[in-house]
Amino acid sequence: MNPQSTAKHKQITEAEYSVNSPALTKASGSKHTEMAFQLLLAIFSCVLLLPQPAFGITRHYTLEIKMQNVTRLCHTKSLVSVNGQFPGPKLIAREGDQLLIKVVNQVPNNISIHWHGIRQLRSGWADGPAYITQCPIQTGQSYVYNYTIVGQRGTLFYHAHISWLRATVYGPLIILPKRGVPYPFAKPHKEVPMIFGEWFNADPEAIIRQATQTGGGPNVSDAYTINGLPGPLYNCSAKDTFRLRVKPGKTYLLRLINAALNDELFFSIANHTVTVVEADAIYVKPFETDTILIAPGQTTNVLLKTKPSYPSASFFMSARPYVTGQGTFDNSTVAGILEYEPSKQTKDAHSRTKIKNLPLFKPTLPALNDTNFATKFSNKLRSLNSKNFPANVPLNVDRKFFFTVGLGTNPCNHKNNQTCQGPTNTTMFAASISNISFTMPTKALLQSHYSGQSHGVYSPKFPWSPIVPFNYTGTPPNNTMVSNGTNLMVLPYNTSVELVMQDTSILGAESHPLHLHGFNFFVVGQGFGNFDPNKDPKNFNLVDPIERNTIGVPSGGWAAIRFLADNPGVWFMHCHLEVHTSWGLRMAWLVLDGDKPDQKLLPPPADLPKC
Ligand code: C2O
């Protein structure tokens, strides 16, 4: 069953709507209108033929956040959905388009939606993280996210950005190139979004609530999913399998998205190799691989060339986690099935019912802790860096920062002598950046900054490097306590930033997929052990480093990124493993306005939710 085919959703396709010809959607009835309509259509068609229109169109979407009964693994639950769909509907736009997305909250929970990877140039009010760029949308309220997609094309996704609601509130966000602009690879026969998720039989909100109270690790998921479907390797799940039907001798573009809450994933298709062509909506130098590694918050476009002739077999497309931490995890495997459509000649011999009886091949996935594979894979990712898609790596750096990322503890805050379930029974799990575990404010940071009322909401001081340095990847210090605060790093407009993120071994080294809102960054270097400021920068790649919005900081190692702070606003940065974000592995950058009018944050929309 295709999860997207069942529910109605109000998607307006691009042919139906243009900002310059809203009459197109309303045309009806009278001859006069009809003629006007045809004329407009003619003009519109001409415009469509232009190789690169100077303008984009405006697309309207309505996303209703509502409860929906969904059954997986023989467990039925009422979950928070988008338009009654799980996963949410696919949103499509083109580079240059303006999106007006009305989000209506019809559930008891507060909600906000983040458009993960969208740069939000000067439109930070539409970014979405609750209490960072907006107050959440309350029950019965709505908010129109209004932004224009500038200089970006590729696969991204949207997800809820409050508590753990993104467990069920997510969907693909596909940005096509401008009209007439081709991909830097042969046009695929078909494009297929494949979005990975995690299924919990219990309510994810109850899981994180309990973990926050006890200080322990939250329960793990019961299954991984592809397009919401766990597949045949789980009990009571065979009917909920994602099936991709392909023709022989064609090329398919798979738009892979990791929307899982807490797990990086290996993904492989039996007996097929794929060519990686894009990551985080940035074209990369194509390379072939059997297996890809994709962290939560990352997207990867791959070309799948099908077998030249009908193979008389089907193939598992499987994913399971890459795990470096010491906590418990969901070690199960999701599988979808790649099925070949018989050609006309072979149709009689292999009727559809027989597809089920064909041999089914399974891929060999790397071991769950295969850091060697992870390192090799991430070293293969390079920006395309072509004439049309250059890698504009900042070559001069105004400010260098060194942040640690890792776990830690807070004291058990229970009164009446109760014990906690953290690493010890007197501690609770925490996580931090440079030992500051970020406390969520109760007012939105962006509004507080914009209205000059930040006093008591956040501190504009974040340390350039850890206040107490230690041997980050050596024997961990005895004191694992974090400090707690809402600290922002303030940057003047257009600051060129280099940031080294260093994993720590406190409570175990672990790979952390760090996500930065509002920017793409270049990953100029990566390594294991402690970053050495004297030696390591000599090996930085300033020519064709991968550009992305989420980077897996290697377990027990470091990653160096560069970005230009050319986007005024407050930008969240956090580990995209939701459990670590919940524990405080998060902070925010405040990028100030520039002097010129087009270097300033736009004023807030009138319907911006209030706290
Ligand atoms: Cu996809 Cu702040 O997250």
TrEMBL record:
Record-linked InterPro entries: Cu-oxidase-like_N, Cu-oxidase_2nd, Cu-oxidase_C, Cu-oxidase_fam, Cu_oxidase_CS, Cu_oxidase_Cu_BS, Cupredoxin, CuRO_1_LCC
Keywords, comma-separated and alphabetical: Apoplast, Copper, Glycoprotein, Lignin degradation, Membrane, Metal-binding, Oxidoreductase, Repeat, Secreted, Transmembrane, Transmembrane helix
Entry-linked PROSITE patterns: MULTICOPPER_OXIDASE1 (PS00079), MULTICOPPER_OXIDASE2 (PS00080)
Domain Plastocyanin-like intervals: 65-178, 191-342, 462-593
Transmembrane segments: 36-55
This enzyme's EC code(s): 1.10.3.2
Stored Pfam families: Cu-oxidase, Cu-oxidase_2, Cu-oxidase_3
Main location (coarse class): secreted
Function statement: Lignin degradation and detoxification of lignin-derived products.
UniProt record similarity statement: Belongs to the multicopper oxidase family.
Annotated protein name in UniProt: Laccase
The encoding gene: LOC104726601
